[in-house]
Amino acid sequence: QAGKETHQFKTEVQQLLNLIINSLYSNKDIFLRELISNASDAVDKLRFRSQTDPEILGDDTEFKIRIAVDPEARTLTVSDNGIGMTREEVMDNIGTIAKSGTAAFLEALDKVREQNALAPELIGQFGVGFYSAFIVAEQVTLITRAAGSDTAVRWTSRGDGAFTVEAAEKPERGTDVILKLKPKEESDNDYTEEWVVRDIVRKHSDFVAYLITMMVERDEPIPEQEQIKDKDGKPIGGTTRKVRVEETLNSMKAIWAKNKNDVSTEEYNEFYKHLSHDWNDPLAHLHVKLEGVTEYSALLYVPAKAPFDLFFPERKHGIQLYCKRVFIMDDCRELVPEYLRFIKGVVDAPDLNLNVSREILQQDRLVRNIRKNLVKKVLDLLKGLDDTRYDTFYQEFGPVLKEGLHSDWENKDRLAELIQFKTTRSQDKFVRLKDYVANMKPDQEEIYYITGENLTMLMNSPHLEALKAKEFEVLLMTDPVDEWVVQSLTEYDGKKLKSAEKGDLKLGEGDDEKTDVFNALFGRIKSHLASHVKDVRASSHLKASVACLSGDAQDMSAYMEKLLKASGG
Ligand code: ADP
Ligand code: MG
């Protein structure tokens, strides 16, 4: 346990570190936000644990995050008295990457390499917060002691392939992260300057719920009787002296508890980054305060970019639950449905019991009401976005939102207003169902769609020939989830949704005569293909092509069949 061990970083971590170290950051300051956010998380965890195990706090009950700078040594230290880590936890948490996402991460890393300019933004999506210390530090040391343990451990690395782990001395629980700063370049902030640190904390971490303090030098007036005076009574050596005092850097104001008018866009954005670990600004936010029977306040955000693990089942959800500004839990799945899992934010419900468990939450009427309420508000927010922002949203999260049509019957109509598709006539633009219906031809009664893997394939499908000839617009559905959409959404605005590739299109062009003429021929073809096809019929789909394969009205679409085969179904 005591010996000093040297370990190699996992390949993907080292790749990431190289990126961090070699990228040009437009804003290096954010490393401090990441370290403070880790410290704050660590205190959250300890406080949560102390609810069932009050002993664990000992007499160290004032939670605090301390920053210390040393200009001579060029170090900056962030300390917390949070939960700390055992040696095993250090090995597990520092030196690896979000265990669930390694493969996806590597894929994204390739993308980063291709478009290096975007690296900082992309990196921000992987929860690599701790490693951002290497943006400004040539060496990072972490000394930590887990709550309830009497041994500490020191982790240290220069980000050059290896790190060491050894036993250490630390009198109290918690974690110190010590950065040995790189030599300052012309354009850099000097992170050993008090005012620099103060400004960054105020800008990025003001709302952190724990005291963030720094020891600073102040000029203090020397009391009259302690002043040394000459024989004429004039003070010698000045009337002030330097003292070191602990200064609080943050206001700790819960931003969601403020009035909307008192919060600037920049503050909203900073809070989002704090919550989400995303380095990009959010696309939109929703700030509600509801009073009455269901009392709560909420500050929710729609990210501008989908995280790489949006479709991983074990992925954390983005809602934190508070009660009167006291953190209760994160990843609160009870507050928004699965299909809104990309929403980040905070919900504060003053009437909730502080010690609620997840099991109880599921049954809780208040929680159910809040959820119902929030879903409507989020869907309204999305509906109110201008087209450009909505399209950005839809590119990123459309496939997830569409899951709602299948799972949230109560909001089906709202969701139907929000979904959109490219069509045979829209070229690169998305069309909402409302606009599709408004543009229907006078003799058109149904909404046509076709599902498949990609737009080009669908555009050229022989199934669409007859519809194109009549200038009927067809929705082109290329998301796997669309197969479920059309099963749940069978009608919109009184018009049936109809597959362009299945059954009879009933476009009313003398199909009957055609059938008579061709009956004999069809009989012969059918006898040849007997074991492969159900029937041979005149098609209402075709114009130029001679024949195509087609499903019965109630059959699966060709794409659905393919999807099921691919998933082993
Ligand atoms: P994230 O915060 O998104 O989990 P980080 O890279 O910032 O990712 O941190 C990785 C992990 O290291 C954290 O999840 C936590 O377990 C651990 N950790 C980092 N800083 C601290 C700290 N100050 N106290 C306790 N644990 C920490
Ligand atoms: Mg972090």
From TrEMBL:
<comment type="similarity">
    <text>Belongs to the heat shock protein 90 family.</text>
</comment>
<feature type="binding site">
    <location>
        <position position="80"/>
    </location>
    <ligand>
        <name>ATP</name>
    </ligand>
</feature>
<dbReference type="InterPro" id="IPR037196">
    <property type="entry name" value="HSP90_C"/>
</dbReference>
<comment type="subunit">
    <text>Homodimer.</text>
</comment>
<dbReference type="InterPro" id="IPR001404">
    <property type="entry name" value="Hsp90_fam"/>
</dbReference>
<dbReference type="InterPro" id="IPR020568">
    <property type="entry name" value="Ribosomal_Su5_D2-typ_SF"/>
</dbReference>
<keyword id="KW-0547">Nucleotide-binding</keyword>
<keyword id="KW-0346">Stress response</keyword>
<feature type="binding site">
    <location>
        <position position="358"/>
    </location>
    <ligand>
        <name>ATP</name>
    </ligand>
</feature>
<feature type="binding site">
    <location>
        <position position="175"/>
    </location>
    <ligand>
        <name>ATP</name>
    </ligand>
</feature>
<keyword id="KW-0143">Chaperone</keyword>
<feature type="binding site">
    <location>
        <begin position="100"/>
        <end position="101"/>
    </location>
    <ligand>
        <name>ATP</name>
    </ligand>
</feature>
<keyword id="KW-0963">Cytoplasm</keyword>
<dbReference type="InterPro" id="IPR019805">
    <property type="entry name" value="Heat_shock_protein_90_CS"/>
</dbReference>
<protein>
    <recommendedName>
        <fullName>Chaperone protein HtpG</fullName>
    </recommendedName>
</protein>
<dbReference type="GO" id="GO:0016887">
    <property type="term" value="F:ATP hydrolysis activity"/>
</dbReference>
<feature type="binding site">
    <location>
        <position position="85"/>
    </location>
    <ligand>
        <name>ATP</name>
    </ligand>
</feature>
<feature type="binding site">
    <location>
        <position position="93"/>
    </location>
    <ligand>
        <name>ATP</name>
    </ligand>
</feature>
<dbReference type="InterPro" id="IPR020575">
    <property type="entry name" value="Hsp90_N"/>
</dbReference>
<dbReference type="InterPro" id="IPR003594">
    <property type="entry name" value="HATPase_dom"/>
</dbReference>
<dbReference type="Pfam" id="PF00183">
    <property type="entry name" value="HSP90"/>
</dbReference>
<dbReference type="GO" id="GO:0140662">
    <property type="term" value="F:ATP-dependent protein folding chaperone"/>
</dbReference>
<feature type="domain" description="Histidine kinase/HSP90-like ATPase">
    <location>
        <begin position="27"/>
        <end position="185"/>
    </location>
</feature>
<feature type="region of interest" description="A; substrate-binding">
    <location>
        <begin position="1"/>
        <end position="358"/>
    </location>
</feature>
<feature type="binding site">
    <location>
        <position position="38"/>
    </location>
    <ligand>
        <name>ATP</name>
    </ligand>
</feature>
<dbReference type="GO" id="GO:0051082">
    <property type="term" value="F:unfolded protein binding"/>
</dbReference>
<dbReference type="Pfam" id="PF13589">
    <property type="entry name" value="HATPase_c_3"/>
</dbReference>
<feature type="binding site">
    <location>
        <begin position="125"/>
        <end position="130"/>
    </location>
    <ligand>
        <name>ATP</name>
    </ligand>
</feature>
<dbReference type="InterPro" id="IPR036890">
    <property type="entry name" value="HATPase_C_sf"/>
</dbReference>
<dbReference type="GO" id="GO:0005737">
    <property type="term" value="C:cytoplasm"/>
</dbReference>
<keyword id="KW-0067">ATP-binding</keyword>
<feature type="binding site">
    <location>
        <position position="99"/>
    </location>
    <ligand>
        <name>ATP</name>
    </ligand>
</feature>
<dbReference type="GO" id="GO:0005524">
    <property type="term" value="F:ATP binding"/>
</dbReference>
<feature type="binding site">
    <location>
        <position position="34"/>
    </location>
    <ligand>
        <name>ATP</name>
    </ligand>
</feature>
<comment type="function">
    <text>Molecular chaperone. Has ATPase activity.</text>
</comment>
